[in-house]
Amino acid sequence: MDIFETPLPGIGVRYEFQAESGDHVGVVVRRDGKRDFALYDREDPDACRGTVELSEGDAAKLAELMGGTSITARLDSLRHNVEGLAIEWVTMPAIGGLSGKTIADGRIRTETSASVVAIIRGEEGLPGPEPDFVLHAGDTVLVMGSSEAVSRASAILTG
Amino acid sequence: MLLPLPLEVLPEPEASHAGQVLIELGIILLVLAGLGRLAARIGIPSIPLYLLAGVLMGEGGLIPVSAGEEFLEVGAEIGVVLLLLLLGLEYSPRDLRNGLKSNWVAGLIDGVANGVPGFAMGLILGWSPTACLLLGGVTYISSSGIIARLLDDFDRVANRETPVLLSILVMEDIAMAIFLPITGVLLVGATVLQGAIAAGIALSLVILAFVVSMRYSEKVSSMVHSHSRELLLLTVLGLTFLVAGLADAVQVSAAVGAFLLGLTLSGQVADDVRGLMPPLRDVFGGLFFVFFGISIDPRDLVPVLIPALILAAITAVTKIATGIYAARSNGIGPRGQWRTGLSLIPRGEFSIVIAGLGVAAGIEPQLGPLAAGYVLTLAIVGSLLMRFADQIPLPPGMRTKGARPTPQPLGVRTRT
User: What is the pTM of this model?
Assistant: First the structure.
């Protein structure tokens, strides 16, 4: 989907996209954090049929209702699709756990039978890390296995 | 022997002068408050009513003002400085850069199409070239204050034509930062060379403000920043008056100094000041419009009424044409083009600032009354046209031809 961004001098930024139904939807993010949610008119596509002003909290609520961030939405669908298989995103703690150590140090596969499938570091995803991969604080570790194995693995990871 | 009363230590003023000033100020502020309510009730901006109240006060008017005039003069000057400071704060340098990059042709057309009628009218009335130039400035510049406020009131912030509209306003405001110093120098009767030097100074100050705000904005902001509202207010006000005063001393105009300072402040400090200053600006800004009105004798309005109305009609049409051109070249549909044109019509604070320079310098007795009549007309008519833009039928030749227009994408594509 294409999202178009236009600066609004003195106000903030305006985002616009076309929904699959054909309607154009706009969001104005104001500098003070307020949002305007707008639905464009079909006859006069430059004007809004209506706008709703949302506070920062309202916007967060609405985002939650709409399915939250795309990562959690996709994660949820994975959980639903594969019965008996648990997936957990574990964020590495600043101190303790396996932070600063290799995956092999935790003996996760041997102890729990869960697998470390991927690491997310910053914006970068690293699939299939080697056992000698050194985990850093703040890394997100994707663990897969039975739900029991996954919870034990995350206990090892976070310490 | 009589004991001297402690009061006698003070220099003897005329009887209860301070009381007189306070009474007059109180009446003025209450009149403004009443008019502000009235304006909100009938859905027009308050600026034209403040102006009208000023015209009806003072010499030749219904309410005499004498004792408070000195304070009003200072208050009005503070009002201009605060108006411009907050205008500068509204824009980040990035906004200005984007505005200049995307719509400079429309900005140029805007300047020529709306400045020339004012200049020409001055020539017809037999004014001096400087007075003509000032009137050209009065007719050129739309009121970003009124328009931004009305966009919000009428829920048009999210409209697709709004970015086009705003970028034209931004360009006008930048143009003012260069126009005001030049006229300031011309008004003190300088030569062309001195004018060129002033323009050079103004231009380098604008560039300096840009560089400072882009490179060092964090440093400046952290120097000014304070968690105490009191200290922040004192720092920002002190800095503003100092910069404005210094700018005035080098003939760049106090207003421009304040505007550039506003541009320079950014980040957290800008947010804090934006939350802190508007009430102050509204009070002193109100005094500014009243003071300008007071300087005008209502009897002087009558002879310039016809030229003011003719000028208003012409420059309303030229603004509409400017807006239609700018919106069309950005891929906005006919309805949106029409709205953009109508929304550019309101004139307000900047026109009065420009005319005020001429009035203070006393170059042309008709300039003040003409500008007042002009701004009164276009502030009110323009706001009404903006409000009813969707009910006013499009001029022939602009109608949509049956088919549903498909909007062109606007702006930068961010994600796929």
Answer: 0.75
